[in-house]
Each structure stands twice: as C-alpha cells, then as structure tokens.
Amino acid sequence: MRHDTPSQLIAAANPVNVSADAANSPEARAALQRILLDPAAATVEPPHRRRWTYVVAGLATAASVMVALPLFGGSNAPVFAATPPLLSASHTPTPTGATATLRSLAETVSALPDDVGSGSVAQVSMQSWSLFTRIDGSEVQSEVVPQAETIRTQPDGTTSVLTEYVYQGEAYEENFSTRDELNYPITGLSSDDNELARQLAIGQPAANGTAGSFDSIVQAYRQAPIEPATRAAILRFVASRAGVETIGTVKDRLGREGVGFTVDSSYSGLPTRYTLIFDTQDGRLLGYEEMLTSDAGKLNVRTPAVIQYIAFEKSEFVE
Description:
By secondary structure, this protein is an alpha+beta fold. The chain has helices at about 5-15, 25-35, 95-110, 195-200, 210-225, 230-240, and strands spanning about 65-70, 80-85, 120-135, 140-155, 160-165, 170-180, 245-250, 255-265, 270-280, 285-290, 305-319. The chain has one domain.
C-alpha cells in the first residue's frame, strides 16, 4: 500500500514525454509505474507518505470542487476527492503591474528591522492540504487530508519533521529526523541579488524556468526563517523573472490578506499555474499554490482545479 501526491499521479498519467530534469521526482514516478503495472506486487502496510513534499497541497476547506481520479489496475470507476476552491483576486493580472508591485514592496521590506529571532535552530510551521492515494492490489482510493507540519533544522543540516494528520478516520503523528547537505546554511541565504539568484538556481534546471524559481523560493522558506533584507531580495528576484503576473489582493487559506503573483508553465508535464502569495506589510511568503489550468492529460480532472497548496504559519529561530 502506498500514498502518492497529486503531482506524482499527474506525472504518471501524463501522455507527454517529460525529461528527467523536468520531473519533480523520477524515482517516485518510476516506483509508482511499477506498482500500477504489477498490482499483485503491492503489499499492505501502515499508512505513510513521502516525508519531503516541497509543494504540499493546502488546507481542507468547507467549499470545494470535485476532481475525479481514474482507478488504475482494473476498474473504470473514478474515485472522487474534494479540492480547495480557486483563489479570488481583486483585478485582472498584468505583467507591468507585477514588476512595479514587487519592487515597491521590496523597497518597503528592506527598511524593516530584523524579525526572525536570535536562536540557532530554524523552526517553520505550516498548514497544508494533501491528496492521499492508497494503492492496495487493484484497488485505488483517494482522500483529502489536512495536515500540520513543523520542520526544525539545525545548523549542521540535521532536520526533524513533525507531521500530524487524520487519515481514514484515524489520527496519525509522524516524527522523523534526517541529515542532508544543505544548498546553503540556514542563515546563509544572501540579500545580494546576484548571489541570491545563484543560490536559488542550485539543483534547479534552467529548463524549469520561472516555475522552477518559484519552487526554489518555497524550499528556502521551508528550510528557515528569512530576514527582511533577504525577503526584499527575493521580491526583486521574482520581479526579474519572465512571465510573472499579479492577481492582485487575495486571502490565503488561513484568511490572511496578501498579494498574489503567478506564472503559467508546463515544465512538470501539464499546463499549471503556480502562485506565490506575499504579505503586503512585511514581504513574507504566506502561501504557495498549484492549479491545473486546462489540459489534464489522461486524468479525469475537471479543470481549472487546485491540486496543491501550502500555508506558512510561523517561522522563527529558536533556542
């Protein structure tokens, strides 16, 4: 029995031949393909998920749209899961408006005092929404799962992740630790525009374009709190990227008001709109979303449909 994210299922069902560099996780996609081609090889085990999902889907909400995922492995009946409603914006996006808005906000943020705490351990808390998919033999079930996640990263790269969620009526708590080589120290994300661009490009193929840059920004916010000067540099970086538009003022999945910036891309294999939501007062990243815009490949998905989002709740240095 395995649980896979929406991106993995979409990649698996996508008719487009996506290169390994463009794929979010080639290993995960290959593993899923093996399972789908050989249902008898699947074994029953306790519910578990990928421990690292940089684009976790967002909070479950009362209002929802329906997405139908096909049953693989012998049945034609779809499994339905509720996805969040689309973001509402205050005006029509324009590229010129995005650049001016980002640079103006960056100027404001650069003058703010330090506000991330003085400890040595980075602690980031998030609320999110995920689509769990259970594959057990020839049976596939999908369920929307709200979850809370707290990531603590030590200066040496040792990371502990606490995730709490309810799956199929039962409460689960996952707590694991790992040590990874960081792309940059937890306090080392630069406020220099050129150096920041270099850091955000680490591990991100140039072919992924602006959507890949959005991904790198989300990963940076997951790793550690970001002080004002660097937040301002991130805003300038977004302003410099091709294809960025503003969707104006929006409320994130926690009800906080921010300004949204989007880019449309098919780098993951399907036409998707990627959105960053920044706080208009201090420039923090409030949330990140992915939405299928039109062609859903072979998936029985009614577009447009939000497939993932993450809401950053609190970020500070502690201890």
